[in-house]
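Inverse folding, one chain.
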């Protein structure tokens, strides 16, 4: 549990923000993007996401996948380990703190490629 706590702590920590200057607006428009797929978050020209084999570049994507697939099971396991006490309880407390820090500001938002029920009733 301690290793999982460290893994979540590193994966869900906020990225350091760079201070914005007035020249950033012009340079962002006039330079070539540094990422291989700068508008990939729109999901316009790629197949649906394969959550098992994709690397997620930003914190919000990692939070969303973790919340959708693993959060309920991990929280249930943490609660059981806390009740057990001992070394497992202490490790569960560390994991619980990592979850609260990493997922504290997470809120579920509808993504463009999250089409569960989006096209119901439309003939494509």
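Residues assigned per position:
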């Amino acid at each position: 549990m301690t290793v999982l706590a460290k893994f979540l702590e590193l994966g869900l920590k906020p990225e350091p923000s760079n201070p914005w200057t007035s020249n950033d607006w012009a340079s962002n428009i006039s330079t070539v993007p540094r990422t291989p797929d700068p508008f990939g978050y729109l999901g316009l020209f790629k197949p649906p996401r394969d959550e098992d084999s994709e690397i997620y570049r930003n914190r919000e994507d990692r939070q969303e996948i973790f919340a959708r697939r693993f959060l309920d099971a991990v929280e249930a396991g943490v609660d059981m380990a806390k009740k057990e006490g001992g070394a497992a309880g202490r490790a569960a407390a560390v994991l619980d703190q990592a979850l609260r820090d990493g997922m504290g500001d997470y809120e579920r938002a509808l993504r463009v490629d999250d089409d569960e029920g989006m096209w119901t009733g439309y003939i494509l």
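Residues 86-103 form the longest helix (18 residues). Residues 53-113 form one domain.
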